[in-house]
Amino acid sequence: HIVLMIAMLLAVFPGSAPAEGMKGAYLYNLSDFNGVIPYNWVSICTDEKKGETYVADPSERLVRVFNDRGMEVYSFGDDGSFDNISAVAVTEDDELFVLSRINTSYSIIRCNFRGEPVGKMVLKGVPPEFSKDFVPDSIVYHGGRLYLGNRGTMKVVVVDKDGVFKDGYDLAALMDLDEKKRHDADIVGFNVDHEGNILFTIPVFFSAYVVSPDHKVRSFGVRGSSPGKFNIVGGIASDKAGNIYVTDILRCVVMIFDKDFNFKTEFGYRGLDPGNLIAPMDLAVNNEMLYVTQSRARGVSVFRISAD
Description:
Blueprint: H1 2-12, E1 24-29, E2 31-32, E3 35-36, E4 43-47, E5 52-57, E6 62-66, E7 72-76, E8 87-90, E9 96-102, E10 105-111, E11 117-120, H2 128-131, E12 138-142, E13 145-150, E14 155-160, E15 165-170, H3 171-174, H4 179-184, E16 190-192, E17 198-202, E18 207-211, E19 217-220, E20 233-238, E21 244-248, E22 253-257, E23 263-267, E24 283-286, E25 289-293, E26 300-305
């Protein structure tokens, strides 16, 4: 329903003007030797050590790997090794974990650095309150742990690289949501920052959330169409300095907030020219580089983030 609503609103609402003091400078789109790859709302993660970017495309059942100049250098999955590909996570040791989800079943495949499967992860010791009806659609790696998110049930399971349960988050319970609000509260953006905080967004609440490792919840966001306000909030990510990046799918911008949730600036403008954005969704940060996924076959745009 949210995809249909966004499509209708994009046709009605004009684009917002770029904010003053814009810190995001457009560089290029992820490409291969044939040109820009026309992705639609794909899953993305980065390898900070190598400067590489991994893009999981469920429609192609393929993961493509790009170098620090945005050119494809490798891909895997086209040999039928995976039933489906929903998302991918990469560790500091160049291990890859590929999440596949089909209806009410899922699998997590451990792969070597070339994407060759070496084993299937089996979760161990997960309490019943987190294992029942848990079908993750997101996977993020941080600090030796994999964060598996089920955005529909608002639950997160944290395991080590061997699949052993380490922690669990019932985000709806932490937010004290009643059953009606829990039913309406679809998570869209999901990520984990450098401190192990869980980041997520809920468009119907016009809010973004940060949940600390000790399960404390903080939130920010104000409904509106002016700079720094949320209309239809989408993806979320953060950098090493704690700055938080949030997309607004309808306004077609990327907003930047500091670690205390103070609005700093935003950039982006609805349109088809280079550097413009169409329904931006997921985000990934690699040092000063920001990767933004979009719809309408606009692919993944890459921006350089710089201070004033």
